[in-house]
Automatic annotation (TrEMBL):
Pfam short name (any one): A_deaminase
EC number of the protein: 3.5.4.2
This protein's UniProt keywords: Hydrolase, Metal-binding, Nucleotide metabolism, Zinc
UniProt catalytic activity: adenine + H2O + H(+) = hypoxanthine + NH4(+)
Organism superkingdom: Bacteria
Protein name per Swiss-Prot or TrEMBL: Adenine deaminase
Residue intervals of the Adenosine deaminase domain: 13-328
GO terms for cellular component: cytosol
Keyword Isomerase: no
Residues involved in substrate binding: 280
Swiss-Prot/TrEMBL cofactor(s): Zn(2+)
Keyword Membrane: no
Gene source species: endosymbiont of Galathealinum brachiosum
Length: 332
């Protein structure tokens, strides 16, 4: 059987629900922003940067990812970062996105919350008007930092709350259980925000349960370790809880040694609402199309499965029924 073609997958309308804007910083833009802001990078060339992107686990990656974000200083830098990602989306027929940003990565360096969110949301607005790409923005708390710091960030976001649809939880997972943030997530829900959380990427299936029960998430980010707990799989199917899975991320960070071992299609066949996403595409070797292509090549994903994965993303997205229906029509 021949694999589904790259052209077909690129043309397929797609939706991205798990994307860290800071993780879409390509080395070329990193150098441009370093020059613009007079920042010395520990690399001489773009090739050297790419060569450094070899990771054994999540923490290896996060150390480099936070270092890369230092070049982001001015509102225009956040605009340029976001716009470059959205142009890539346009080239891959990604019609709706719900990106994450990590305000603490910037506010801890003295960049104001306002600078960050204004740059990002101006690019999202322009993409809506000029590229026809709709979006909803998600603000993540860094789980290696304290609950108090998350509360402070939530407070800083309040004047801009209309620009945000949900709060999320990312960064180092091991030893940082979701329930550490139960109270700040409760406060976010009181403010009218939805919630999501990274869980079951490197951390145990138990963290998926607590993300659901304690943080009341509407989606679980990653969640691939759910297959270690059959009761959890049954619950995910019954409750239609979406998982935002990131195949290339999982192999780059050694959650799975080989794409052929990835469990996304197994979960799809079990009836779990799994979706395909790129996570940190500049670091993991591919955007949406490349993630779908990897599944076609290594797991013999069919066109029917690819369309089902996109349909799941439509169902899991944080948009009204009218936009969902319009996206279903675009999928055909
Ligand atoms: N921040 C950026 N990418 C991440 C990932 N894959 N897991 C946790 N935190 C992240
Ligand atoms: Zn992520």
């Amino acid at each position: 059987m021949t694999a589904v073609s790259k052209d077909w997958l690129n043309n397929l309308p797609k939706i991205e629900l798990h994307l860290h804007l800071e993780g879409s910083l390509e080395p070329e833009l990193m150098f441009e922003l370093a020059q613009r802001n007079n920042i010395q990078l520990p690399f001489e060339t773009v090739e050297q940067v790419r060569a450094a992107y070899e990771f054994n686990n999540l923490q290896d990656f996060l150390d480099i990812y936070y270092q890369g974000a230092n070049v982001l200083q001015q509102e225009q830098d956040f605009y340029d970062l976001t716009w470059a990602y959205l142009k890539k989306c346009q080239s891959q027929n990604v019609i709706h996105v719900e990106p994450f940003f990590d305000p603490q990565t910037h506010t801890d360096r003295g960049i104001s919350f306002e600078t960050v969110i204004n740059g990002i949301s101006r690019a999202l607005d322009d993409a809506h008007d000029q590229l026809g790409i709709s979006s909803q923005l998600i603000m993540c708390f860094l789980r290696h930092l304290s609950e108090e710091a998350a509360f402070e960030t939530l407070k800083q976001s309040e004047p801009f709350i209309k620009k945000i649809v949900a709060v999320g939880l990312d960064s180092s997972e091991q030893g940082q259980p979701p329930e550490k943030f139960s109270r700040v997530f409760a406060k976010a829900r009181e403010l009218g925000l939805l919630t999501v959380a990274h869980a079951g990427e490197e951390g145990p299936a138990e963290y998926i349960w607590t993300a659901i029960n304690d943080l009341k998430v509407s989606r679980v980010d990653h969640g691939v370790r759910a297959t270690e707990d059959s009761e959890l799989i049954s619950y995910l199917v019954k409750s239609k809880m979406p998982l935002t899975v990131c195949p290339l991320s999982n192999t780059k960070l050694r959650v799975f040694d080989n794409m052929s071992e990835h469990n996304i299609l197994l979960m799809l066949e079990q009836g779990v609402c799994v979706t395909v996403n790129s996570d940190d595409p500049a670091y993991f070797g591919g955007y949406m199309t490349e993630n779908f292509v990897a599944l076609a090549k290594s797991l013999d994903m069919t066109e029917i499965q690819a369309r089902l994965l996109v349909l799941n993303s439509i169902e899991a997205s944080f948009v009204d029924d009218e936009r969902k229906q319009a996206m279903r029509v675009m999928l055909g």
